[in-house]
Amino acid sequence: MAIVQILLNAVIAASLYALVGAGFALIFRTSKFFHFAHAATFTAGAYLTYTFKQIVGLSLPISVVFSLIGCGIVGLLMSRLLFLPLRRRGASSLVLLLSSLGLYVILQNSISLIYGDHIKSIRDAKVVEGIPIFGARITEIQIAAILGAAVLIFLLHTGLRYTGAGKALRAVASNPTLAKLVGVDSNLVVQLAFVAGSVLAGAAGILVALDIDMTPSMGMLMLMMGVVAVIIGGVRSLVGIAFGALLLGAAQNLGTWLVSSQWQDAIAFAILVVFLLVRPRGFVGG
Amino acid sequence: MQYLLHILILIGIYVILSSSLNLVAGYAGLISVAHASFFAVGAYAAALLSVHFGSPLIVNLLCAALLAALCSLLIGFPSLRIRDDYFVIATFGFQVLTFSVLNNWVKLTRGPLGIPGIPRASLFGWEVSSQFEFLVVVTVLSLATIWCCKVISESPYGRVLKAIREDEMFATAAGKNVAAFKISAFAFAGGLASIGGVLYAHYISFVDPSSFTVMESIFILSIVIIGGAGSLLGPVVGAVLLVSLPEALRLIGLQSAIAANVRQILYGGLLLAFMLWRPRGLLGRFSFEKDVH
Question: Which residues of B touch A81 (CB under 8 A)?
Answer without folding.
Answer: none
